[in-house]
Structures are given as structure tokens and as C-alpha cells.
Amino acid sequence: ALTECLQSGRPEERIAADVAEAQQFGFNGTPSFRMVADGADYSLIGALPLEQFTAALDAMLAGEEPPGAP
Asked: Model-level pTM greater than 0.70?
């Protein structure tokens, strides 16, 4: 089943679609995270410390812009 799947080209199509979607958000590497709340979206890009994610999520839950948001 794995060989058949790989030979079908489906994985490449799916990966290309995922890459195209990520590029629409300005992502060009991994890890990249997009967080959406109340119609606003924010990105965290890179291998960031947990504290940065926590600060961003806490701010968003409080209805504020995350620290460092553009």
C-alpha cells in the first residue's frame, strides 16, 4: 500500500498544496504557526520558547495583540 501510494504522486500533490497554502501566509520555513482570534491572525515563526507561545495565547484570550505582533 505504501509503495502504491508513493508511486501514485498523491503525496507530492498534497505537499505542494500545503506549501502553497503556507506561502500565502508568508511562511517559508518550519516550524510556523498561525493563530486566529476574533478575525485577527498572528504568526509565530521558528523554534520559539514555550513562554513566547504562552504570552501570545494569553494576550489573545484577553482580547489584546500578542507581544511583538506587527
From this structure: no
